[in-house]
Amino acid sequence: MIRMTSGRDGGARRAPLLVAVSGPDHTGKSSLVRALSGRLRRRGFAVVTVHCYGCVFCRWFPVPPRVREEGEPGGTGAGEWVRRSARPERRGSWFRRAHAVVDAGELALRIGAARLGVTVLAGGQPAVVVTDRGPLDGLVKFDLPPGRGAAERFARIADRYDLTLLPETLPATLNGRGWETAAGSPAAWWARHRAWAARLPRVSRIDGEGPPESVAATALEHVLAAVPPSPEATRRGSSRYHERELPPSAVPEREKRVVVSIYDDAENSDYRGGGALVVEKLARRLAEHYQVTVVTAGRKAGSAERHGIRYVTLPVCRAGPRAGQLLFLALLPLVARRIRHDVWLESFTPPFSTSFLPLVSRSPVVGIDQGRSAEALWRRYHLPFFLVERIGLRCYRHIVVLNEADASAVRRLSPRASVHVIANGVEQRRLDDARLGSGDSILFLGRIDTWIKGLDLLLDAYGSARPPMELVLAGRGTATEEHRLDQLLAERGDGVRWVGYADEELKQRLLRDSAFLVVPSRHETFGLVALEGMSYGKPVLHFDLPALRWMRGGGDVAVPPFDAAAFGERMAALASDPVLRERLGRQAGLAAQHYTWDEMTGAYLALTRRLVDRPAARRRPRKDRRVPWQSTR
Predict the structure, then answer these.
(1) Which of 275, 405, 515, 571 could make a disulfide contact with 439, Cβ separation 3.0–4.6 Å?
(2) pTM over the 0.70 mark
(3) What DSSP assignment string belongs to 573-591?
(4) Residue 600 falls within a domain, yes or no?
(5) Structural domain harbouring 559
């Protein structure tokens, strides 16, 4: 539990928080401890980490004592010996009990010294001790009967911990990370960890299968939730210790408000595009430093908090995908007048892209060009959306684009704006040499939009070239676009399979099993799907659009824009040549390693900090109108 002690000034001083990261070997405990410690330090905590592996007996006797099974022949084979823990009646041997007592004693001494040290170093800051192993691991390691003296020692130490994190992974994951078969089955170790976790207080089981940054963010939420408010914060009615108890130098930043707006959302069945993923990554990174609100579209108005981020939903989707976009653009200026913010990051929304937010906001507004498509829609519908877009772009003083080609275009349309090129990121994966060049299908992955995504050109190219592989289409779109695709497949869909919406599991399987990706788009701003395919070591075939030239030399194959015949020829050549696919796939995988989420979100964070800290951002706050979804917290 958290204890309060008396300080020199007679006030209350908070004892350091004690957190353990537990689990079997190869669950990534050490890396999680490092990531968690870094995030806590950025929150204003003083942090000390302790690696509690190995007592004096472990150093003297690195292998636990083993015994021979009754009736087992002699010898030294791996199958002829078992650990004492496999025989319940032998778990309580004198050596094992002594070993457990020494291990528990050293653990108690280490955490005691760490808590004393971090208290001295904290200098008034909130303090945390994070141990890379805890009493839960000791109980699992020795597996002594509950109630015995050694087990009770570990249980008493566990009661001193404020939180024990148990990042759970699949047994197959541990096997893939180098699990030693001599230690037994990973499933058996997990069963023991879960059994003992149920007996101990304040154990939180978290999903350890996700990306490391996601696991660290979840662990941070659990740690912050374990910190109760200080007496002063309680008197003010605040329960957010991590916002109110930061050192004075960090308080101004935590009180700043950042709003991110985007029409797309992971729950939007009509789109679910890559922009929603980018905003999610961005919002989580900014939430480590600021109070963040995400304004998005939905079928019902609402406000909810997830991962420390406030999500505000505007009820525009019932009007349909096209009218919904227009309503979203019309409502954003009204919402910007009501939601307090120090910086607003606006992801452009078709068809006009801009919503003239800088004209109604007293704080800096950053336009993010993830969907500026007015000129493409002009070519498609012959409606002058681009006129509104060009006027709107001149209102912005800061615009983020995803590639150099768009940067040149935006500088031409808005000469006074500061244009920042920030490319998207991707989860980093280790290249599997055995799978390079392999695969049994050609994959299109993305939103179903026949004209924008060039699906008609793709089907023409596939039908004319007849490559020796199946073409798989994965994605969803509006009802109109899906009906249009159904008609195209009925006319020229031989050898083509449409699997519909691909959730994360299906998407990963399709990318892993495909031979290469095709991006036949007539218009793109970056091509996040192409980058995802490259991270799996897959070549990418695309039209030579200026916005896609960031892939040059990175395992891509470019053909003249909208030349379906040339596209089909290159498709057939790639499908017939595994050696070529292997060479291009290796280049693609290496190129993808230069595009990380950490680098992308770090660039946005640096830009946000510059705008928050500039004097122009410190304007007179607007009157609080007390609208229910106004607050960013």
Answers:
(1) 515
(2) no
(3) HHHH-HHHHHHHHHHHHHH
(4) no
(5) 433-592
